[in-house]
Amino acid sequence: MPATFGAQSTTDDVLDGVDLRGKRVLVTGVSAGLGAETARALAAHGATVVGAARDLDKARRASEPVLRDAANGGGLELVELDLGSLASIRRAADALVAAGRPFDLVIANAGVMATPFGKTADGFETQFGTNHLGHFVLVNRIAPLLRPGSRLVNLSSAGHRFSDVDLADPNFDTTPYAEFVAYGRSKTANVLFAVEFDRRHRAQGVRATAVHPGVIQTELGRYMTPEVRAQIVPPNPTGEAEAIPWKTIPQGAATSLWAGVVAAADDIGGRYCEDCHVAELKQGAERGGVRAYALDPERAKALWAKSEEMVGERF
Questions:
Q1: Is 177 a catalytic residue?
Q2: What is the pTM of this model?
Q3: Nearest-CA neighbor of 87 among 128, 117, 60, 123?
Q4: pLDDT at position 175 over 80
Q5: Whole-angstrom Cα distance, residue 125 to residue 115?
Q6: CB burial string 172-198: b at 16+ within 10 A, e below
Q7: Cβ–Cβ < 8 Å for 187, 303
Q8: Separation in Å, CA 139 to CA 22, 26, 37, 57
Q9: Which of 48, 169, 245, 294 could in theory staple to 191 by disulfide, Cβ–Cβ 3.0 to 4.6 A?
Q10: Which fold has domain 11-310?
Q11: In whole numbers, what is the pLDDT of the chain averaged over residues?
C-alpha cells in the first residue's frame, strides 16, 4: 500500500526507499533554500542533479551539503542561468541541448516574490518575467531532452489566489503596480504553463504539474517590508493576525519531490498540488486549494500564445 504523506512530510520521508540511480534532474535556483534542499535529497538517492543558478559562487557554497550527502553515484553539476535575461536563458538551454544528455525530471524552482516594481533585462515586469517567462523559454527550449516518462514540476504558490494573469497588461504598463498582485499573476502563470505543457506533451509520455511548497522562511521573502507582509497576513475577525502554518525547508521541498518522483503521473498531470496531495478547487481568500482560473485550459492556451508573443519565439 503506497505511503501517505502530508504537510509535515519531509524530502527524506517522500524519497524513503526510492532509488534514483541513473536519473538526471534539472533544478533551477539551487543556490539557497528549497532548491538547495531539493538537489541534496535527489543526489542523496542517486540522481545526477544539474543545478542552475544565477550566482555560481553562491551555488558552489550551497552545494556542500549536496555533495556531502550524495550517494549511489548521485552528484551535482552547475550551470549559469539568469531567469531575468533571455540571452542567459537561451545560452544555458542551447548548451544543455548541445550536450544531448536527457532529463527525467525538471523542477522549475527559482523565483522572486513581492519585489518593488522593476523590469528584467528584456523589459518584462520582474516577477512575471522571472517566475514565468524565464522558465517558459528554458523549459520549452530543452523539451527535446525530456525522456518519455519524465516530468516537469513548476513551483507555484498559494499566492496564485491574489490574481489571475492579465494578458492585456502583463507588464503593468497601465495597471497600478502592487507587489502581491504581480506575484499572484506570476504564480497563476506557473500553474497555467503546467496545464498547457502537460496537454501538449502527455501523448509522448511527458507530464507536467504545479506545486505549492508551503510557507517557508527562505531568501524568497527578502523584499518584503512589514507593510507588504501585512497584505498577506490580514487580521482575522477577532482583530488578531492569522496564524501562518510555517514549514521547514525539507518540508517545503517535499511536495516538489512527491509530485516529481512518487505520485502517479496521471494523478498529478495538469494539476496543482500542495502538502503532498492534489489540491481541491476552492474560491475566495481561503489559503488552501487551487482557484479554477489557474486550471482553465483555454486560459492556459491564451497565456502560452501571449508568452510566445512576448519572448519572440514559438514552441
A1: yes
A2: 0.92
A3: 123
A4: yes
A5: 10
A6: beeeeebbbbbbbbbbbbbbbbbbbbb
A7: no
A8: 21, 10, 21, 24
A9: 294
A10: Rossmann fold (3.40.50)
A11: 93
